[in-house]
Amino acid sequence: MLAVFFAFVGGVLFVWSRVLAADIETRHPPVGKFVGEVGERMHFVDVPAPGSSKPPVLFVHGASGNLLDQRNAYLEGMRGEARLIFVDRPGHGYSERGPEANNSPAGQAERFLQLLDELNIEQVVLVGHSLGSASIAAFAVQYPERVKGLVFVAPATHPWPGGVTWYYEVASLPVIGHLFTETIVLPVGRLSLDAGVESVFSPNPVPPGYARDSGAELVMRPAIFRNNARDVAGLLDHVKAFSPRYKEIKKPTVVITGDQDDIVLASIHSVGLENDIEGAELIVQPGVGHKPDYVSTATAIRAIKKVSR
pTM of the entire structure? Predict the structure, then answer.
């Protein structure tokens, strides 16, 4: 009888999660275009800047995010300055995950290269927030001829002591992770969404309507949550392998971090990039947490313009 009871509860949670996921997608539909084969399609927003001679800028969001996060941060302040491309990383937002290689920042960087080829773009400025910084660093190492400059914002790029939050480890497991994300994550996650957003911005206030406007709950859809968990759980192994190669990066680089960021430690990641990339400029924002892209947007835009030159 106990097994029947748990099976019944699990079935109810599974169906409820499907209903909630469909509701999320209804309220936050795709806002851009798609390129690529079915199963590997990439979702992006391409904002032209007629007459601009500056290189295009590719924005890459961090963990638990999607392209709306970066679009809402930068679009108004940079509209018309340069061609702006905001992308959902593979397996996030509405971009499909594709092959297993896309579980790593290096594989995701290859998908960005394919996107640039589709758009006939030779060189870009890369802007990465948090985990997205690992992807743009991998891109710069692998495809240096396609990079004009880099801006790292609250980067997560170097090995750190310890692990990751337990639910990322659980969700990334082959069988248990599937059961966990298909039944429990979405119903419970919706209850803690606001607290999670506040922790990311802390100690700074959350901008009004941020969770709604950024489509933050898109990450709680079961398959997307699993992809996100694999990204986070696998990041440490990736940066252990890739960070020794950051010295190969020879492009203009600015690193922006807050001195109150307790999501990623500036003393490890931001200082690490400053040390590894010759000529990199480190900007430390006093009183700022993990979201300098929102709290210090003007600083980030100045950095983008600087490396564009």
Answer: 0.96
